[in-house]
């Protein structure tokens, strides 16, 4: 029997970066989330798994401020964020990966990365006109950072390619790169390796590890590939029909009988 969030802070333990408490959401008569509680630890990668339709993306939408919960509380870095608009949540350092917008497709990989730097967008014209030394220095630093991210993502040859011409997998890498450029402290990644060929899966895995271990970025990741989950996640939550049914280290969760049951009969690739 599942007894609730085992990663909830115990006395003396460091406070989690993200705390989701008793979040529920219904779409008409469909209860997409039922009293969901989970935590994402500071400096760690936390996993979220579960069959299709179990509510993973809905939870991400709610955390990011794109949907409103019917009930529940969400705290990020000790700030209550439920009810805040996405841009405010983003400014606090919590971002999710985005599909490329129309504009993004007609920018190069390098330009996309530079545009993702937080605070750049609204001040672009002012920044351009007032070439203060500080601004110049920041821009030089951002360029260095973008080159670093390009190297890390293995997109060196594509740096000056229009994003619209990238393969599906390369776009996923660029999506990741944009989140990393933004200075986020917590990234929400919804299926970062879905539909990506095995070589690129490894590139994405390595990039996630570097971003986490070397840059200290915390992550909450929805992922179907259990190899990826086992390799990068410290702690995993399992959603089924909108409710958390299990949580713990990946090895423990994978051997949980209730979890095995819901994955049994599913497409083998999702439990690999
Ligand atoms: N905007 C919406 N309107 C109505 N139903 C939705 C909406 N978003 C998600 N749902 C439903 O909520 C359930 C959970 O969906 P989702 O969060 O996308 O699951 P997952 O990401 O785990 O596959 C599904 O039954 C889905 O059809
Ligand atoms: Mg989904």
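^ structure tokens above, recovered residues below v
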């Amino acid at each position: 029997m599942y007894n609730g969030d085992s990663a909830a802070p115990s006395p003396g333990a460091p406070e989690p970066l993200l705390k989701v408490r008793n979040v529920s959401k219904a779409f008409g008569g469909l209860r997409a989330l039922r009293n969901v509680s989970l935590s994402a630890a500071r400096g760690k990668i936390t996993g979220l798994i579960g069959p299709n339709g179990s509510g993973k993306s809905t939870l991400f939408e709610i955390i990011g401020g794109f949907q409103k919960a019917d009930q529940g509380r969400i705290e990020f870095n000790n700030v209550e964020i439920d009810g805040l608009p996405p841009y405010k949540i983003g400014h606090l350092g919590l971002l999710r990966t985005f599909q490329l917008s129309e504009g993004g497709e007609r920018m190069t990989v390098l330009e996309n990365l530079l545009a993702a730097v937080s605070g750049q967008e609204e001040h672009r014209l002012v920044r351009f006109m007032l070439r203060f030394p500080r601004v110049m220095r920041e821009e030089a630093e951002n360029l260095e950072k973008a080159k670093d991210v390009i190297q890390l993502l293995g997109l060196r040859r594509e740096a000056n390619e229009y994003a619209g011409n990238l393969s599906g997998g390369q776009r996923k890498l660029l999506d990741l790169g944009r989140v990393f450029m933004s200075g986020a402290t917590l990234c929400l990644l919804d299926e970062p390796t879905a539909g990506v060929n095995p070589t690129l899966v490894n590139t994405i895995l390595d990039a996630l590890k570097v971003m986490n271990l070397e840059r200290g970025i915390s992550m909450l990741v929805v992922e179907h590939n259990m190899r990826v989950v086992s390799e990068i996640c410290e702690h995993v939550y399992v959603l089924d029909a909108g409710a958390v049914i299990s949580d713990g280290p990946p090895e423990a969760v994978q051997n949980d009988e209730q979890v095995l049951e819901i994955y049994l009969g599913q497409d083998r690739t999702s439990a690999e």
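The CA atoms of residues 49 and 238 lie 5 Å apart.
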